[in-house]
Amino acid sequence: MKRRFLSWFSILLIVMTVIGGLAYFSPKAKAGDTSSVSISLSGGPVKSKSYIGNDIEVKLKLTPAGSINVSRSPVSVVLVIDSSGSMSASSKMTAAKNAAKNLIDSFKNSAKSGDKLGIVDFDTFVNDNSNFYVKGFYLQNGSWQKGNSSTIYGPYSLPNTCTSSLLDLTNTSAINSAKNLIDNMNASGGTNMEAALNKAKNLLNASPSGNDKYVIFITDGMPTFYLNGTHNGYPLVDGPGLQPNNTTKSETLSAVQSLSQSGTKLFVVGVDTTGADVDKTFIELMASTANGKSYYISSTNALNSILQDIFKIINLAVTYDNLTVEYPIPSGLTVTSMPAGWKIENSKLIGTFNPVIFENGGGTPSAQEISFKITSNTEGIYNLGKATLTFRRYDTVNGESTGSLEVNLGQVEFVRQPGISATFQVIGSGNIFVPSTPYNAKLTISAYGKSLDVATIINNFTLSINNSYVTLQKVTTTNPSFNYAVDSGPTPTSLTIDYKVTFLREGTISFTPVLSYSINSTANSMNLTPINFFVIDATNMIKSFSITKKIISDNSSANLSLKIDDMGLFSYDSAAKIKIYVEMSPTDTLNTNVTFPLQLIVDNSTRISNGLRVLSKPVTFKLKPNLTATKINFNISRIDIISGGKTYTTAFEKKINDVVVKKVTLR
């Protein structure tokens, strides 16, 4: 019998061990678990390539995942409303009343057995008809006046617009009574947050066991009063009255701490229509101290939706807010458009997504998508880098946390649109062009860019010149073209078309070549670089070249003379010059008063005789020692024509031969 008992005991022990092991390794889903939901961030460019100067759209998508379907515990909620004097401005009191009553309706419509509600109205003290004293302020005709700072005034009591106990949210009559209390609230007095929080805690002390406890606190300012013990057995209100100080804030936070220690979570809604009344950091500290959440709004229009969000959270919703995107804009890219409310700051694109709320029983929220556009004026491949999303997550089960997500946006390429550049060059012998003479010329066309989406053909090239004194004849018989395949450039990348150019008059000739062509059968044209030429026939420019003596005595002078036909040069350019180079050979037998090659200048002021420009240059000749005679030659070797800031050079030859220089023989 004993052995059988030990056997059964051993089997039982093994079974219990196995069961215990299974319990240990199996995941335990706690009641009201809200950890199964999440958000993710994705994104990238809509297309990867575009032409420079055009936009590429980049999208960011915020995608919620999961859903919440859990049963919550009964709740006890105390709604605390600031009715201080400042709440009368900007319709804050009216907005708070309406939002509060809508919140009550939401709780009532989803109420379950055991749900409770309390209302606390406060200003200088709580409005619950209880007695209190005030230091430094007295109540006169319903308005608080500043008195002697050391004098204690009172006792006072304020009209009762608070519930004396927690109401049953399933009781329609009780709910209507709570709404009537809210309707009777009036804005006056200061801001005693400590008294309001203590009142809320006292109401929640009577909360049924097992209820989750919450305080929703609406205010438009900071604490200006606090509780400084008692006087004659009643609470004594103290403080600066108009502005907060360290004491009012520390006493308020002590009350928040006490509330937290009782297991209550605190939601604080700061309504700051001026931007200077609510300290955002302070209300965040209040909420975080009591494991809750704060909201800072600048418009009363947002108050109703904020209270509805809080209702959803208490109903075990999970919220993601402060969904802020930061995107460093890569060098070389420009953001050309962005969503409303987004901005560029310190070379970063910054903006927000709308809050995401996973409602209990409400399924998965819809994804959100935003887009912005970028461009570049420089060819190249650009790494778009990463966009970062930071967020705050809150639910009543797991509390508040923060996190971040990153998405690598990939890369884009900007290319030049298919196009061409072109140059036209006349090929002459030197820089002087002779009229009525055909010169070779060539049109060089270079292609650039890539073709995206569709293939591109550039062809039908035609060159024209806007000057009737220039004729143009095409020599190349083919009609070449550029063929761009999709996502590639043309082959070949450049081509040449040959021409003959003839100038029909002398002088300065200017013209602009115009190239016409087609891009995918659409006509286009471009003006090429303007061209300026000087056209002149210099072969007959020097009409005579002479010296006054063919036999010159040693150490005496003779005039070199020239007669020049300027061929109308100065009528085209009055500032033009003709530079004539005169050579002498040999140069080692005598000395002269000038340097050879001798440069003679003809300009618009040079003397005219019988229609020709006349130059005369006296030259002194002296034989070198030990020489009694020498024979020399003169030659015009080059002519420069200077016009329009350019020098046109031509080789030239006109000679004076066998000039004799000899010593004089005395007889």
UniProtKB/TrEMBL annotation:
Pfam families cross-referenced by the UniProt entry: VWA, VWA_3
Domain VWFA, residue spans: 76-310
Protein name, as recorded: von Willebrand factor type A
Top-level taxon of origin: Bacteria
SUPFAM superfamilies: vWA-like
PANTHER family for the chain: STOLID, ISOFORM H (PTHR10166:SF37), VOLTAGE-DEPENDENT CALCIUM CHANNEL SUBUNIT ALPHA-2/DELTA-RELATED (PTHR10166)
Matches recorded under InterPro entries: Ca_channel_alpha-2/delta, VWF_A, vWFA_dom_sf
Gene3D superfamilies found in the cross-reference section: von Willebrand factor, type A domain (3.40.50.410)
